[in-house]
Description:
Pfam families: Anticodon_2, tRNA-synt_1c. The chain has helices spanning 19-34, 53-66, 89-102, 112-124, 140-148, 197-207, 223-232, 264-269, 274-282, 297-303, 318-331, 334-348, 353-358, 360-370, 380-388, 396-403, 406-421, 427-440, 445-457, 465-490, and strands at residues 6-9, 38-41, 72-73, 105-108, 154-157, 165-170, 174-179, 187-189, 212-216, 239-243, 246-247, 314-315.
Amino acid sequence: xxxxxxxxxxxxxxxxxxxxxxxxxxxxxxxxxxxxxxxxxxxxxxxxxxxxxxxxxxxxxxxxxxxxxxxxxxxxxxxxxxxxxxxxxxxxxxxxxxxxxxxxxxxxxxxxxxxxxxxxxxxxxxxxxxxxxxxxxxxxxxxxxxxxxxxxxxxxxxxxxxxxxxxxxxxxxxxxxxxxxxxxxxxxxxxxxxxxxxxxxxxxxxxxxxxxxxxxxxxxxxxxxxxxxxxxxxxxxxxxxxxxxxxxxxxxxxxxxxxxxxxxxxxxxxxxxxxxxxxxxxxxxxxxxxxxxxxxxxxxxxxxxxxxxxxxxxxxxxxxxxxxxxxxxxxxxxxxxxxxxxxxxxxxxxxxxxxxxxxxxxxxxxxxxxxxxxxxxxxxxxxxxxxxxxxxxxxxxxxxxxxxxxxxxxxxxxxxxxxxxxxxxxxxxxxxxxxxxxxxxxxxxxxxxxxxxxxxxxxxxxxxxxxxxxxxxxxxxxxxxxxxxxxxxxx
Length: 491
Ligand code: GLU
């Protein structure tokens, strides 16, 4: 591709990828697809204490699950590699040396204690704590003396002497202006030989020829520092867009870690469909402009515009996600839903492998019925239990009472007879049977419906009887009704 539209998704593999980061990946992916560009997956692993290969693998796995394919990067390759930052240290070093030579950077030997003291002083004087520039103009001797003491320097970026405005031209927010006076001489290389995020990200985005940097709003305050580095190295600026934060239902920033965090894999593990999560995430900060919220991938690609993204925070509304996922579950191909639901049934212990092998068609019917009432597939076992277990009444004596009397026997016998008489039991034909029972038998509605439901499902309420009976079929219905009548006799 030669239209020079190149985007990137550069997660840090320091935790299980959560919804905020994945939404960023999605928006980058959407722009890429829309503009026929390329998406680069870069792994920002310079925080070596917290980065792991396992978290990197999880990022790749969950992107794959959602269908967010990168064109280039870790695990794929490409012309601008390597794509893991820890494999690019020499490059960062090379550009850091350039900044040193041109005077845009300098070595700073201040110790942690000295910096703490500086900080405290500023706080005591009611000033914003910032590096005071002590090492800006060290002489060669001073430097040598520090080195002789064994001090390991960091590299700092030298802010412009004169206060100036730095303007972030943001595709979502318009021009956002920062004064250089709110910054200080920030670190670009740490004493452990690793570049800082702000430095490495610029080198990478520039060398990888990234045209659009789309990332979370939490990075907006980093952007002026990055712009200064772009300028110092004479790199062309990319276009920037900072996405609104994702908020929880209490309008607090969604957590990245801890018990309320939203790791993407949890959705998969609970039986959310990737297309539902895709649709839901696309609406976190963006709307298609009309009321319709269920949008296919193709529709979203067509209608999405980064400039239409909202500035204000996007609320993560789990109820809406559940509603949406339920819709997708019902619309999906049944075989696929069966494939996805069976592991949940296995895990619940309601069925075993052998049962699945021998009763696939029946299970498919059960899953088709029960998917009408669930938000996600891990809820299927609870709904399916009725179809897969023998009824056990908690209070058999009480249940038996419900099945006593000539009227109940008449209802059950007639229902059996009519069920066997039909060629097929569908919701429609079962509906007809119930109508006939009401018209032909001289018994009240309650006597028709209540004992029947209890005998067939073991419960006083639950799914539509027409569908339950049509799924069970005449034989199983008859067996259950007979068992109930026997119970009535034995109590
Ligand atoms: N590694 C950074 C993060 O995950 C990337 C930020 C950026 O897109 O520049 O937050």
